[in-house]
Write a structure and sequence with these properties.
This protein has 122 residues and is of the alpha+beta class. The protein is built from two helices and four strands. The termini are far apart.
Length: 122
């Protein structure tokens, strides 16, 4: 008879507890903390794009607004990724432009979209 049947070795239990704790900590992050954690990367992304598009190495970026966007798909089988979205203005060399910058949760980078893509025609 196997005396270990139904018991989980201590090493696996400890590893599982650590994983559950890490996931719980990530889930407890507030939206404000999530936005704060992504803001510097978003600013840097928009500033670099603005410097290139405006042909102005001195252009500077500033956050105009921010929000956490929930995934469009959420369910037991399929789940999208939450993201921080920032509207960022870039000004320099007598020019200005605006970008929407998205930073996915769990990712290290952000991407800047031309805000004109979101404008509706008159």
């Amino acid at each position: 008879m196997n005396r270990h049947c139904g018991r989980v070795p201590v090493r696996r239990t400890t590893a599982l507890a650590g994983l559950v704790s890490a996931l719980f900590a990530m889930a407890c992050q507030t939206q404000a903390q999530f936005l704060t954690s992504k803001q510097d990367a978003a600013l840097q992304t928009a500033e670099r794009r603005g410097q290139f598009e405006l042909n102005c190495p001195d252009a500077k970026a500033e956050v105009l607004s921010s929000e956490v966007v929930q995934p469009a798909l959420q369910g037991p089988v399929v789940a999208g990724i939450q993201r921080a979205e920032f509207t960022i203005g870039v000004v320099g060399c007598g020019q200005r432009t605006t970008y929407v910058v998205a930073c996915p949760e769990g990712g290290e980078g952000c991407f800047a979209m031309d805000s004109g893509a979101f404008r509706r025609g008159n």
